[in-house]
Amino acid sequence: VPRTLVLVKPDGVRRGLAGEILRRVEAKGYALVAVELKHATEELLAQHYAEHQGKPFFAPLVEFMSSGPVLAIVLEGQGVIQGFRSLAGTTDPTTAAPGTIRGDLGRDWGLDVQQNLVHGSDSDESAAREIGLWFPSL
Ligand code: ATP
Prior knowledge:
With 138 residues, the chain is α+β, with helices and mostly antiparallel strands.
């Protein structure tokens, strides 16, 4: 059964949205495999966001992602990788559709798309790599 890595980013945890996000995931029917509140190190985040190294938003993104705890979640279910990305909505909350996590709950994004509440793996390969980084024991 496919798995994906979801992160409730520091803005989501800070705003008390972790439970609402878990509720949506469970309502969709995905199974929780692992859930852990973690304060990510810059080293872990640099590996997690390796594909973005060198981009102008990389350093601010790592700083934001280490500004408070994140809720790291492994989900399991048929079609969960694309399914969670559909639940999340587009990267930029200003364009995310109503009914999506970012579309309904994104509100503090301000002037950039950095604070968009959640992360979800974008492929089987990313999911395997990211689950290994965040949950080495799985
Ligand atoms: P995620 O991988 O977090 O689910 P995504 O696949 O929708 O998001 P990516 O393009 O992989 O988006 O970007 C990763 C994260 O980097 C985004 O979720 C956002 O927090 C941040 N980000 C992306 N583009 C920008 C940008 N232009 N300015 C600031 N932050 C950005």
